[in-house]
Amino acid sequence: MSWFVRKEKGISTPTEMKREAPDGLWYQCPSCKKIMQTREHKLNAYTCEHCNYHEKIGSDAYFEVLFDQNIYIELDENLTSGNPLNFVDTKPYPDRVRATMLKTGLKDAVRTGFGKMNEVEIVIACMDFNFIGGSMGSVVGEKIARAIDHSIKHKVPFLMISRSGGARMMEAGFSLMQMAKTSAKLAMLSEAKIPYISLLTDPTTGGVTASYAMLGDFNISEPGALIGFAGPRVIRETIGKDLPKGFQSAEFVLEHGFLDFIVDRKDLKDKLTSLLNMLR
Amino acid sequence: MRTYLDFEKPIAELETKLADMQKLAEQSNVDVSSATAALQGGIEKLRKEIFENLTRWQRVQLSRHPDRPYTLDYIQLMCDEFIELHGDRQVRDDPAMIGGFANIGGQSVLLIGQQKGRNTKQRQHRNFGMPNPEGYRKALRLMKLAEKFNRPIVTLIDTPGAFPGLEAEERGQGEAIARNLKEMFMLKVPVLCIIIGEGASGGALGIAIGDRVLMLENTWYSVISPESCSSILWRSWDYKEQAAEALKLTARDMKENKLIDGIIPEPLGGAHLDHGVMALGLKKVIMETIAELSKLTPEQRISERIDKFCAMGVVIE
Asked: Which compartments does it reside in (chain B) (predicted)?
């Protein structure tokens, strides 16, 4: 017989009752694995203070980084995708769209806004990669087209933030023609002599690279972003060899002459403002 | 020796039978004219039946038929004169994209097109009709020349895609195509684009921004090939037929969706069966369309070109 007898029942707090530190107080960098406070990470424009890793962020975060006091008017926010081809692969296209809407709280893969950046008026279109791989369908094309119209009408600069795997296959021919549509609008923006800055973020490939993303008066990127026409896997399969290290990175693309500069996200807002002020 | 596609097998059998019969008749001096005439009639009827009900995948197969006329074949058959011009003035000449000034029935035009090869050596030389960035830059250089000298532009599209290679990326494949899209909208001269075989994605679109975009009857034009679509969405190469159906990539589909302006008919059985007739039909359409487009002012053409492409897309407000 033991000396001590447990008279009361052991601790049996159910999991949901357990008290812990609130979620999301700490952020672990997926690249260097170091820990920092979420608040610090956010103040650092979602980049790692240790290794400068740029977290992949969506339109919400970019708008917050760029628009003064996060104040902007969202344009065409209720545009959603139709199903012109009745496309069915492993599941019907509208089901896929609906499921993605529920999961992400987004309407499609781009959001467009009009506001001020360091007091300078600007139209920003920003893609969301977590909406079907940031793929470009009719909604993406149409919203970008209308955002450019807004730029022309109000004579304010246009900033496009791309992050996309390319075209949206489920809209086939319609998707392809969005490349044409957005390029047409950019040609008009160019004629109107309004600055167009294209920011290519990680990753930007396919039909997006082969249309609006590469058509900036200024093509810029963030450190380490993957930028290409064909994806790395396709190229590897085509040439039957491993790709050199750093191939298709923003640094590689800059070296080959297709980017004007690479900018750390925490400096983005001020650098863009300086640039635009020099053009006014 | 003719190449038959899998769905043409019944025709192949009858045609072999016909050839045997004719050979036998020659050897034995027997009159079989009534029998051969009946057989020929049967073949025509069968061909009509098969070709009236082609599936989308079968049209894709026809668009890639090894005997199908390519850009240079059309140039030879349609043009009284053709002076080929080479190079992008920056890196090199791209044999997958050809261009030059041509005389078509008294009208001088700038002609541009992707070029595929007929045999293994040619195919390698032409890179299977997959242009590098230099190809798109050469095309743009020539289009600017056409604009300078006020000559209409005709582009013939036949490509399985822009080349996805290492050097293509280094030299900015995406930028080259994007630039063409933007610049072609502002060309002051008439631009006529015709899909003569495969119209794969950005590689096709890179020379396909026109006042009129037409497709030959047995061609395809879409954002991705059925095979690649199958591999991505079904994670297997085996669903190409379903992918072709889902993509709605034929001339008829594209016309119904108002993504192209018209369809040019092919001889029964496909363009490869009669290069001469096909080229004649194509030449007629080119001349008529250019005459029609020439009536408009450059400003009208540009604004209609922009409006047409900007109207494409289906969204719910």
From this structure: Cytoplasm
Contacts of B46 (CB under 8 A, 6+ apart): B10, B11, B14
Q: Do A171 and B165 touch (CB under 8 A)?
A: no
Contacting residues of B for A89, CB less than 8 Å apart: 233-234, 242-243, 246
pLDDT score recorded for residue A185: 98
Architecture of domain A57-279: Alpha-Beta Complex (3.90)
Which of A8-22, A173-187, B253-267 has the weakest average pLDDT? A8-22
> Would you state the pLDDT for residue A275?
97
Q: How far does B63 lie from chain A, in Å, by closest CA?
A: 17
Cα A41 → chain centroid: 18
Residue A71 to chain B, least CA–CA distance (Å)? 24
pLDDT tens digits for range B204-254: 999 999 999 999 999 999 999 999 999 888 888 899 999 999 999 999 999
Domains of chain B: residue spans and CATH = 9-53 (no CATH), 60-310 (3.90.226.10)
- Among the partner-chain residues A142, A177, A228, the one whose CB lies closest to the CB of B259 is A177
Domain ranges for chain A, please list them.
13-55, 57-279
Q: How far is CA A196 from CA A54, A62, B203, in A?
A: 23, 17, 25
Put simply, the answer to whether B202 touches A229 (Cβ < 8 Å) is yes
Q: Are B102 and B109 in contact (CB under 8 A)?
A: yes
Smallest CA–CA distance, residue B60 to chain A, in Å, is: 15
